[in-house]
Design a protein that fits this description.
By secondary structure, the chain is an alpha/beta fold. About 30% of the residues lie in helices and about 25% in strands. The two termini are about 15 Å apart.
Length: about 160
């Protein structure tokens, strides 16, 4: 499923839906070039979870936990992890009681969870704020998550 987005506000609105329908142990892998909007997307997801505190990119801390919403948000950025992903205990997050959002998650290679929703953000080469969001589900849980997102989008439109 591909969705064209015209500006960061639309990204946030769609991301809010993603957060609204999230369930514990759902995992999102966010991919896209630097500046594509991965952290902006995570901010919207957090709003959908009822988290209104400042969401910052976890580039240097690797994992930031936000506990104040209806369930925890585990925001990860694995861009700087070259090896040692197995030492981070990521499975505990992926199988835990919250939503895991992993920026640059494909870099985890063999440590990627087996069930996740992949969202790739592609910048439009012509229009600065325009993006295309591509959704792909890997695994049954992710397929169910994507179905919930689609249904909620239909309800909102």
């Amino acid at each position: 499923m591909d969705i064209a987005i015209n500006n960061p506000k639309e990204t946030e609105s769609l991301a809010k839906i993603i957060g609204l329908v999230a369930e514990p142990s759902d995992t999102i892998i966010l991919s896209g070039d630097l500046g594509a909007g991965k952290t902006t997307m995570t901010k919207g997801i957090a709003l959908g979870l009822g988290i209104d505190q400042m969401i910052k990119s976890p580039t240097y801390t690797i994992i930031r936990e936000y506990q104040q919403g209806r369930m925890p948000l585990y925001h990860m950025d694995v861009y700087r992890i070259e090896n040692g992903a197995d030492d981070l205990g990521l499975d505990e997050y992926f199988e835990g009681d919250g939503l895991s959002v992993v920026e640059w998650g494909k870099l985890l290679g063999e440590f990627l969870p087996t069930d996740y929703l992949d969202i790739t953000i592609t910048k439009d080469p012509q229009v600065l704020e325009k993006r295309v969001l591509s959704f792909q589900a890997f695994g049954k849980r992710a397929e169910n998550y994507l179905d919930r997102i689609k249904k909620k989008m239909e309800d909102v439109i």
